[in-house]
Amino acid sequence: MPSTYVLPFEKPIAELEQKLRELHRFSEEQDIDVSGEIRRIEEKIRELRRKIYSELTPWQQVQVARHPQRPYTRDYIGAMMREFVELHGDRRFGDDAAMVGGFATIGSHRVMVIGTQKGRDTKSNVRCHFGCALPEGYRKALRLMRLAARFGRPIVTLIDTPGAYPGIESEERHIAEAIAVNLREMFTLPVPIVVAVIGEGGSGGALGIGVGDRILILEHAYYSVISPEGCAAILWKDRAYADRAAAVLKLTAADLRRFGLVDEVVPEPEGGAHAAPAMAATLLAAAITRALDDLVRVPSAELLDARYRKFRQMGIWIEGAADAVPPGPRDADPAAGA
């Protein structure tokens, strides 16, 4: 089913698709064969879509990752997994609809799948906090991961969140502690963990279920320490500079692969996952299955050691004498600190 939500840069494609529909309607009503013209427009649409999606800016990539018709966690679970048995609650406070999890089967692997979930309309978005999990969501995720470890089941996590829920409820129930405990505990789980960023990967909200042996990211997803809008508000005091922030954050799948922060970029169908959700699920399922096939053969001790080293090696830093470091703006201008 074609997408009915059109991103700004997709408007030329939408105009051609509208012309194509009108041509089909004209052919049916007038009983005139215009198949040649139809084929020409269809080819033009394919070429234009290929060109536009091969030249997306980082900000445009963010817009694709946020597309309201993009497949979400439950869509992927339904399309690529079998025998899903959902589990609820953190056994402390309640059940968070923004965090979904349960046992399922993918390929030949029986796994624990956990992921952040967004809503499709106002009512479901309010219930899911627009994909932003509360502390009980992260504690539910950890409970399910420990359950998976007890039964020797690999863990698959699907990330699609702008960040953890920022409201007062999160602070009251200790969101920072919940995420920190997840980070610590995920390094100790003796089973394979495959992480896939399927849409937005925002800050600690994403990282709270993001420690794994293989990190996958869909072609048009993003993963960042902060949203482009948040970055723009801090650096330029204006969220209108979000496009500039997206460029400097290096948050696209290609950038993350180049820096070694993800292991594999999973291709999306032409026009993005929202254009062909079933195909997107097939491509993601194949990538997850390949990763699991490799990881289940690795002894637990080696798995844990490699996981620790993987994350310790992330990032770039420079060591040296203090006078070897170029002065910053505050050092260069003493008045700047006044």
Any overview of this molecule?
With 338 residues, the protein is of the alpha/beta class. It has 2 domains: 8-55; 63-312, 2-enoyl-CoA Hydratase, Chain A, domain 1. 47% of the residues lie in helices and 14% in strands. The chain is built from 15 helices and 8 strands. Strands 1, 2, 3, 4, 5, 6, 7 and 8 form an 8-stranded mixed β-sheet that branches. α1 packs antiparallel against α2 and α6 packs parallel to α8. The chain is globular and about 70 Å long. It starts with 10 loop residues before the first helix and ends in a 6-residue tail after the last helix. 40% of the residues are buried.
Topology:
Layout: H1 11-30, H2 35-54, H3 58-65, H4 73-80, E1 82-86, E2 99-106, E3 109-116, H5 122-127, H6 135-150, E4 155-161, H7 168-172, H8 175-186, E5 193-202, H9 203-207, E6 214-218, E7 222-224, H10 228-235, H11 242-249, H12 253-258, E8 264-266, H13 277-295, H14 300-312, H15 329-332
Helix pairs in contact: 1-2, 3-11, 4-13, 6-8, 10-11
Quickly describe the structure.
The protein has 338 residues and is an alpha/beta fold. The protein has helices at 11-30, 35-54, 58-65, 73-80, 122-127, 135-150, 168-172, 175-186, 203-207, 228-235, 242-249, 253-258, 277-295, 300-312, 329-332, and strands spanning 82-86, 99-106, 109-116, 155-161, 193-202, 214-218, 222-224, 264-266.
